[in-house]
Amino acid sequence: MAPPDNEEVLWARDLEHAHRGSPALLGVSLGVRQGEILAVTGPRGAGKSTLLDCLSGQLRPDAGEVWFNGVPVHRLAPASVDRLRRERFGWVGETPRLVPELTAWENAALPLLLSGVGGREARRTVSEWLERLDVADCARLRPGALRQAQRQRVALARALAHKPDVLFADEPTAPLHRADRAQVLRTLTTAGRTHAITVVLASHDPEVATLADRCVALEDGRATAAETVEEDGVPCSLSG
Ligand SMILES: Nc1ncnc2c1ncn2[C@@H]1O[C@H](COP(=O)(O)OP(=O)(O)OP(=O)(O)O)[C@@H](O)[C@H]1O
């Protein structure tokens, strides 16, 4: 069955998944509108990462459906999932996985170059993102010479430079100090808003909800609350 609401770029119904017999998702349904910033909150082990993995096609759920723009992600062949993820999705995780032999600029440009964008255009686009993310002066350095916060910003530039339809961010600020955390979160959500990129942002930090349009709270693999965040940034509850 196709998703009922065409405004929802991403739609999931009754998702269930267990890791080696241990249940991680127990019937989660949600929809994300084009350009919306959705926070997925909940304590450690609540199922946030499993949900993002299923939504982004990295994990095939045991049961349930995931649709992206009318495409049944849960039924796609691995090669089609890879293509979807490369061309339409961006991903930033807890640990910035950069190629150690490449400079910050080359790392951030990889998805663009792999998708056939010319060197000059890739250079311009990536330079703009590195500038926006305040790491332009690191462009020629390799990851080993960067601080963790700088590496995470480069990973963010890589995830955003090809202007994905959906950016998935799974605990993107977990390894950062408090000041860096706030700045990276703000940069990420601002980038989403100014470029109409849909953002699905998972974190156990309730502060992320203050930056989102809406919040889904998970607990023990179930959605316990789905709330619209007020303009003054009232966070959604964690317990429903
Ligand atoms: N690869 C795995 N093998 C076995 N169990 C797993 C695996 N990944 C997750 N789990 C279990 O599935 C449940 C949900 O984990 P998940 O990582 O999705 O939650 P989370 O909310 O993202 O937690 P965290 O904030 O700690 O990452 C937890 O009980 C976890 O221990």
Give a summary of the structure in a few sentences.
The protein has 240 residues and is an alpha/beta fold. The chain has 6 helices and 10 strands; from the N terminus they run E-E-E-H-E-E-H-E-H-H-H-E-H-E-E-E.
Give the class-level CATH name of the largest domain. Answer: Alpha Beta
CATH homologous superfamily designation of the largest domain:
P-loop containing nucleotide triphosphate hydrolases
Task: Count structural domains.
Answer: 2
The biggest beta sheet reads: 6 strands, mixed
Radius of gyration: 17 Å
- Output mean pLDDT: 88
Specify the CATH architecture of the largest domain. Answer: 3-Layer(aba) Sandwich
The helix/strand class is alpha/beta
- Helical proportion? 25-40%
Strand content: 25-35%
Low-confidence parts, pLDDT < 50 over ≥5 residues? none
What does this structure look like?
The strands form 2 sheets. A 6-stranded mixed beta sheet has the order 6-7-8-3-9-10, with helices on both faces. It has helices at 48-55, 78-87, 104-114, 119-132, 148-161, 178-194; strands at residues 8-19, 22-33, 37-41, 63-68, 71-72, 89-92, 166-170, 198-203, 214-219, 222-228. By secondary structure, the protein is of the alpha/beta class. The chain has 2 domains: 1-88 and 164-230, Rossmann fold (3-Layer(aba) Sandwich), CATH 3.40.50.300; 98-162, no CATH class. The radius of gyration is 17 Å and the shape is globular. Adenosine-5'-triphosphate is lined by residues 19-20, 22, 24, 42, 44-50, 204. The site of adenosine-5'-triphosphate has 13 residues, from strand 2 and helix 1.
